Queue: 4 jobs
Job 1
Amino acid sequence: MDDHVKLTCNRDIGELEQIVDSTERFFAKNSIGTDIRGTVDLAVEELFVNMVRYNKETNAQIEIEMYPEGNGIKVALTDHDVDRFDPTLHDDVDVNAPIEQRTPGGLGIFLVRKLVDSIDYDYRNRVSRITFIKYQEPR
């Protein structure tokens, strides 16, 4: 049985419905507890939306792959023909600073980095790949 899911999505926020549906099917198919589903959906949505909004130099489709990883999930988002943007190097947002002293942007990436168990970035030949892992909490 192939437990891997691969989606190819247009650069359109409207694809989020298909992505969430695929995540739901993946969780059910692989018997992964739904306790981490919200975190996974949030991370995928944030990363996908950033690729759509900020990588405007391309019309290439975005690939999303999901794999079982121990008692959790590994998700990879791949964007083609884009400039480098490594979310693992993005400065943390100072959530304790007064709102008037904060600069817009970065909160979504900050949340993703805090919520997932690991996040990696690879960039080669104008192909950007962000991979994250989220495990279920031991019971």
Job 2
Amino acid sequence: MRFRYPLQKIVDLKGSEKSMAEWEYAASLNNLKQEEEQLHHLIRERGETEDRLGTTAAAPVALAELTAIQQYLDLLDGKIRRQLQEVETAEVQVRVRQSRLAEKSVDEKVWLNTREKAFQRFRYESLLKEQNELDEIATVRAAASRR
């Protein structure tokens, strides 16, 4: 006799939901990494521009060029502020996805444990049935040998 769990489709669904949550979590981690890399790039570019402003200011140069570099620095500062917000949003998304993954993992584990308990019950009943059949065979043989 073969074990057939009547709620197997639910167990499979919970496994699929967990897999989907894992994919979403991985995607959010990847997104966070990209946003952080973009932020580091902007910060590095700002540092280079600030150095260029310092070296340009030390040399005789037109005021318009210094103003242009300063305006570019202000533009980079704005981009950095927006990118910091993007990184923060991505971090929140990672926490949300991580929480959802934990929830789905627990949910799947509950259903797997329920299935395992049903299997253990099935196995116990099968062994009991088999033992009863063996006992009956032994009883019939013993009765037949007495005659």
Job 3
Amino acid sequence: MKPDLYYKDEHLSCTHFHREDTTFEFKSTEKESEYSDTFIKENLIVLFLKGSFRVTSHYFHDQFIHQDEMIVLPQGDSYTITTGKNSRMLLFRFEAPTSSCAKQLLNSYKHTCGPTPYKGAALTIKKPIEEYIQLLYLYLSKGIKCEHLFEIKKDEFFLSLRWFYSKDDLSNFFYPIIHCTCTFRKTIMENLNVVNNVADMIEACNMSKSLFYKRFKSEFGISAKQWLIAQLKERMRRKVLEPEVTAKDLMNEFNFSSPEHLNLFCKKQFGMTPSQLIKSHQIS
């Protein structure tokens, strides 16, 4: 790779382009520098174009990354990147792939989730990605701010990975994102019968409200409140099928604070009182 190809224009010494859409961001420094973020709002792919780098995050523990390599840092993670002199890199931020092909790319690797110890894996930047970066730099350096174009470039990046890298390479590369998603779903399911509301679930997941709401909607397709209510209704339907079950049993098992609280819930969600709900499900 020849990083200087991206910086031929002497009038473009600054490689940080300020746009409302910060999906792509070039960074360049002549001296040793440090970049850090205590809470990544979106998934982040860092492409190291020139220089020496040391990365510390949840998956990368004071790990040296070479130029012409790239890594993934998942949403919600924190990181510190220490660069050497004359270093250049490209930051690519995304919440989730939007095209069907890009979604399939990540979905096909969900089998990698599991307890196996994982050390952060860097991926070599191959020639097709080099050319992709060079054209992207040209667009940004000319002040192009077309939202549609950068959505296309985002999808193109994922397609290029799928075309030019092996499945094993991409499984390791995307593990931090995939593992994060699977762990989140596992935590939700493990706490389903323990928590009483969304606030308790957020606490169980140990994350901020905004990140929890985003990740939950992405994972389950509906809001956390709607999902918890639907799960509670289904569990109650199964419970009222049991012989001799009472309204008191429902109140105790599903953590309703009082008979009035249970009554309000049943009327709102089932259109009937607890006693009527039980009666409607009992076999004559």
Job 4
Amino acid sequence: MSSHLLFVGMMFVVLPAWAKGDQDTCALLTRSEIEAVQGEAVVATKSSSPERRDLAVSQCFYTVAAFAKSISLEVTRRDPDGAAGRSPRDEWMRLFHPEAKESAPRGKGEKEKGQPQPVGGVGDEAFWTGDSVVGALYVLKGDAYFRISIGGGEEQSDRLEKSKKLAGKVLKRL
């Protein structure tokens, strides 16, 4: 009898997350895919779900043997409990398409340091943010988006290419 009560009690803890349609973000990339890109074994994964108003956010941190080369993946979806709140696409527009505040447009091909750079051929739209030390690829697909950040001391262009390769895997499973 007590084991049945324990099971029913566990269902009340698990059911709210399951009912929301939460997916295991860590399952969006396999260990072998990460190892192929980073050249290091994955030693651990850790998932989390930080609270964000009106949005369902889930994260996975893939720790690799050389910690500095670890990977972070964050997925933002519509919160099914958020009644008519902002959508992931609304947040995307706020992040990457804010109203122009400059009086004069930048010249063609001119890059402003720290500004997101468009990346073609990934999802509905994608941007790379970062510099020579840190960087992340943000990818929009439908009404969800994700951020993938790859550690390591490589050139920014190499980290971007690795991010694009992994983003393609995530897009197939999202």
